[in-house]
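Reader question, answered in our methods column.
A reader sent in the components of a multi-part assembly and asked whether the whole thing could be modeled at once rather than chain by chain. We filled in our standard form and ran it. Here is what they sent:
COMPLEX SIZE: two components
ENTRIES:
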Amino acid sequence: MSLLVVGSVGLDTVYTPFDKVEDALGGSATYISLAASYFTGPIHFVGVVGDDFPKKYITLLEAHNIDLDGLQIIKDGKTFRWAGRYHYDLNVRDTLLTELNVFESFKPIIPPKFQKAQFVCLGNIDPVLQLRVLEQLDSPKFIVCDTMNYWIEGKKDELLEILKKVNVLIINDSEARLLAHEPNLIRAAKMIRQMGPEILIIKKGEHGALLFVEDQIFSAPAYPLEMIFDPTGAGDTFAGGFTGYLHKTQDLSPDNLKCAVIYGSAMASFCVEKFSTKGLEDLDYLRVLDRFREFRKLSRFDEKE
Amino acid sequence: MSLLVVGSVGLDTVYTPFDKVEDALGGSATYISLAASYFTGPIHFVGVVGDDFPKKYITLLEAHNIDLDGLQIIKDGKTFRWAGRYHYDLNVRDTLLTELNVFESFKPIIPPKFQKAQFVCLGNIDPVLQLRVLEQLDSPKFIVCDTMNYWIEGKKDELLEILKKVNVLIINDSEARLLAHEPNLIRAAKMIRQMGPEILIIKKGEHGALLFVEDQIFSAPAYPLEMIFDPTGAGDTFAGGFTGYLHKTQDLSPDNLKCAVIYGSAMASFCVEKFSTKGLEDLDYLRVLDRFREFRKLSRFDEKE
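And here is the structure of the entire assembly that came back:
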């Protein structure tokens, strides 16, 4: 059974202190699928674009064994566009433009051959759409869900409804604090898990990530990068690497979830090293494995005998 | 040869959302020494107080095998006092009062029996005083130095001078960025090590700590505390645990430095669980070792075979 990915697809214009890129391939479903494609395939992809969506991006996604039968291409429609500018420290970004276009009336339709999906990764989109995806599935076994402050603030009730149905929630630290109304992350995590997801991942950017599973807490380091070119898509890429690895191994034990968090972090570190999806386009499994092992060196210490 | 600790000694009044404490034992030398005392002793302590300094604190320090021959007690002098208020999220604090008192004219005098010290921990005080300490020592082998934004901004030249003479600098992430004028921590670390200290530790509060040694980077997790009662002294306590463990083991290899960072983090986690120095007063080595091992569980992951 394939991994089902649902989310946004867009054309991003990004300015950083180092360079800029226009109408680059973007969107949560894109980053998730590309990252997951290094672990498993075909990826069952559901999203929407206009017929202005460049053919070269279709080719790129298909080359990564991403099945686009669920990609709606709207005739005479315009693809979702986003533009943003990162500041020198790359932690702050200004949104310059958000044009929803065809995304505004997106109704995810899951093709019949995708409906038996056992593993699902719901990219960061309106929780109403995330719920609509789940309604169309036969009996998903493992649902990973991403969200953001925009939905926490604007669609709290719908978000709480989807949280009851998912196995894993992935959010960042400020979103966790916002969702739980609690500044202490450990307490916030407890409260969020009571909302539904038995597994919670809190991403902390340059400080790594925390995984909460059963009665365990796992602290994953961040990869020490001297140069971050473009942070766009790092969170989606994390989700894709995490879910892709779990789909590949079909092992949901806490120990394997820890490895999945490291694979997610490894993929995100490749993502931010280049503009847009460039860092995810030409990897191979050995490079991913090498980076996984670098994470191990980074955090390993052994007691003196 | 004993571990030499030089720094401030004070009486702290601290308000947190949970409670308050008045004229509690405080100061960088105090926290460093108490933390180090669980690893090694006697601790050779150098600092200054007025004759209003409560006898019970002298007794407490001495009970931890801290040799106070280097503690100047100024007749008719008033001990350094600090008051601060922490906000609900405990990451922000307002300084309500800083009365230097006898600390204003402090000239550290190292008693002859302390001058042969091989291991030295310079607590966060004026870099001019830190330099004066080093001038009085025969041939220190391993010097750990703490500092803060106040000296980075106000005494940069003197700070750069002391940095050339120390082996380890311990600072927090915002101080590292300030000192190097560089938002990326990994690049900032490189630049700071070029200023002198071959070993650098960047503390990141709730996000753990980074150790830079030789060509290695080690990422230490933070202990996941649901309740932080009082963050005062956590950084000094880290430095004390770190240096105390290294003094005990006399092993300065990168692998052992990693363990020292974890012991420093473990001691800091005990510190913030109670008000003032209370969390450091009644520990024993087994509890410290248990916490060290909890840190190991927190960050450990193993590759699937």
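What stands out: Residues 3-299 of chain B form a domain with the UDP-N-acetylmuramoyl-L-alanine:D-glutamate ligase fold (CATH 3.40.1190.20). Residues 254-271 of chain B form the longest helix (18 residues).
Send us your own complexes using the same form.
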